[in-house]
Amino acid sequence: MAKRFPTNPSHPERICWGCDLYCPAKALACGNGADRTMHPVELFGEDWEQLDDHLDATMATSHAAPGQEMPLNQKSE
Fold this sequence. Notes:
The chain is mostly helical. It has a domain at 9-43. The chain is 19% helix and 0% strand. It has helices spanning 40-44, 51-60. The protein is elongated, with a radius of gyration of 19 Å.
């Protein structure tokens, strides 16, 4: 069973978040000396959990049909 993923840890920079081991950043067990995986709060800010809701709302208001790309920087004449 997987451990509960903390949503807003007090010191996310001290831990590698890449797997369920949650190794200390200075003693990675599974990375063979690689860089640690950052927590989403470090990448996206404290409201990272609401990012998915924002993306869903943005996609719902897009004008592209399913399977088509969104037009980028269209200029109206």
